UniProtKB/TrEMBL annotation:
This is Urease accessory protein. Pfam families: HupE_UreJ. The lineage of its organism: Bacteria, Pseudomonadati, Pseudomonadota, Alphaproteobacteria, Hyphomicrobiales. Coiled coil: none annotated. The chain crosses the membrane at residues 50-68, 75-92, 98-119, 126-142, 154-179, 186-203. Keywords: Membrane, Transmembrane, Transmembrane helix. It comes from the Bacteria. InterPro entries: HupE_UreJ.
Length: 204
């Protein structure tokens, strides 16, 4: 069984604070109606959106942490694959392609990535990349639908991609820092908090 399952109640209690805080943040952020903007600016708006949208931030942050946790090539292949697939899905959204259950897919991506970190899930790199790609489709499509509404779609897209890269790098850094303390259980606790946020989005 994964290490998380064997943790005694005392250690689980240490995770209650981050999990509660993350869940409260998501609950206050509201559902993904924030994805559909009546109007958006250029680079600054594109950069700010993933930084201020808790659902996208958590998913991209988790990709970096999971990549760092898995180690090897996954440290960079996961964070590189996510924005590439997201960009392709964004183009599909801009072209008018219809994708249903987008918000459910986004919420499930947060839940799944959080659980992968919490359970220290190690899978073949190809399987991890497949999962990352599926999640990226939902995130990219949501923003592709928004792009035509921006006053400067190209600048908005560049800002969004740059912000995504920054969030991935932040996740990698946090993941690497938390690998050793308490044998990586701090990272697992953060993953549990992210998974709790995913549950909050699903029931919102």
């Amino acid at each position: 069984m994964p290490a998380l399952v064997r943790l005694p109640p005392v250690r689980l209690a240490r995770w209650a604070g981050p999990a509660t805080l993350t869940t409260a943040l998501v609950a206050g952020a509201g559902p993904a109606s924030a994805h559909i903007l009546s109007s958006a600016g250029g680079f600054a708006s594109g950069f700010a959106h993933p930084m201020t949208g808790a659902d996208h931030f958590l998913a991209m942050f988790a990709v970096g942490i999971w990549g760092a946790q898995m180690g090897g090539r996954s440290v960079w292949t996961l964070p590189v694959t996510f924005p590439l697939i997201m960009a392709a899905a964004g183009l599909a959204g801009m072209s008018g392609l219809v994708l249903t259950h987008v918000e459910t897919g986004i919420a499930l991506s947060i839940l799944a990535l959080g659980l992968a970190i919490a359970l220290r899930l190690r899978v073949p790199e190809a399987l991890a990349l497949l999962a990352i790609s599926v999640f990226a489709v939902f995130h990219g499509y949501a923003h592709g639908v928004e792009l035509p509404l921006a006053t400067d779609p190209a600048a908005y897209a560049v800002g969004f991609v740059v912000a995504t890269g920054c969030i991935h790098v932040l996740g990698i850094g946090v993941g690497l820092v938390l690998l050793r303390p308490m044998r990586g259980r701090l990272a697992q606790g953060l993953g549990a908090a992210i998974a709790a946020a995913g549950v909050a989005y699903l029931v919102a």
